[in-house]
Amino acid sequence: MDGALREYGLTVPQYACLELLDQRPGLSNAELARGTFVTRQSVNVVLRGLQDAGLVTRAATADHGRALPAHLTEDGHRRLAAARTAVYAIDQQMADAVPPKRLTALLADLNRMAETLGG
After folding, report:
1. How far apart are CA 91 and CA 11, in angstroms?
2. Is 0.90 topped by the overall pTM?
3. Cα angle vertex 39, ends 35, 41, to 5°?
4. pLDDT in tens, 76-85
5. C-beta separation of 11 from 47 below 8 A
6. Disulfide: which of 7, 26, 36, 68 matches 58 by Cβ 3.0-4.6 Å?
7. DSSP secondary structure letters along 11-53
8. How buried is residue 80: exposed, middle or buried, by Cβ count under 10 Å (0-12/13-18/19+)?
9. Contacts of 45 (CB under 8 A, 6+ apart)
């Protein structure tokens, strides 16, 4: 996935941030850090890179508290859509490697594993 995303000028954490912001616009740094499994400091670096690339915007000041909600720009939506195609193709390639008779059980096992982690 890292190699595929490089073609779109993205890293895996950047892609994960774009996906989360597409699903839930306005997330804070802390929420993005939790959702992408990186530290708050790391997500700040990721967001700065996305802002510098014109893919994400954040308010200069917080409406309340200290959280600066992030939103995708039009370029961010376009880049995400292009990169998503490559990521989904990789997901499909991995799923195709599992025999159809085992895929349902594997997905159920993965869901149970995620649930034990609070997912």
Report:
1. 17
2. no
3. 125
4. 999 999 999 9
5. no
6. 68
7. -HHHHHHHHHHHHSTT--HHHHHHHHT--HHHHHHHHHHHHHT
8. buried
9. none
